[in-house]
Amino acid sequence: MSHRAVLGTRHGGPAPRAHSGIPGRGRTGTEPLTARSALGARLLLSAVALPLFAAGAALLALWAVSARSPGAPGTAVLVVLAAVCGVLTAVSAIDIAVIRRRRAERR
């Protein structure tokens, strides 16, 4: 028996994975059928991140408004950092909403 017959392909490479062609559909990895996301850990991380990033966005925005001292970073830098913190706040809030919906679906 040739090595190609053992591998199951004509070119000698690994057998192709099953793929439905639709993103998010079909099994393409080696994860178990009952794999679940660690919702408790995600909820904890999002619950900690939400107030921290919200406070960071508020403080950086206030600092950007009052940044007139010579040693302070530029206003543009502070505004960008405040915007990044604002986006991360929104991501944390959305993640908490998704986790709550998934937990409600399980019940």
Shape: elongated
Helix content: 55-70%
Tell me what portion of residues adopts beta-strand conformation.
under 5%
Radius of gyration, in angstroms, nearest whole number:
24 Å
Number of domain units: 1
Residue stretches low in confidence (pLDDT < 50, at least 5 long) are none
What distance lies between the first and last C-alpha atoms, to the nearest angstrom? 53 Å
Which features would summarize this protein structure in a list?
mainly alpha; 107 residues; single chain; 3 helices; 61% helix
Please outline the helices and strands:
Layout: H1 3-7, H2 39-66, H3 75-106
Helix pairs in contact: 2-3
Can you describe what's shown?
The chain is mainly alpha-helical. Helix content is 61%, strand content 0%. The chain has three helices and no strands. The model has no long low-confidence stretch (mean pLDDT 81).
Short description:
With 107 residues, the protein is an all-alpha fold.
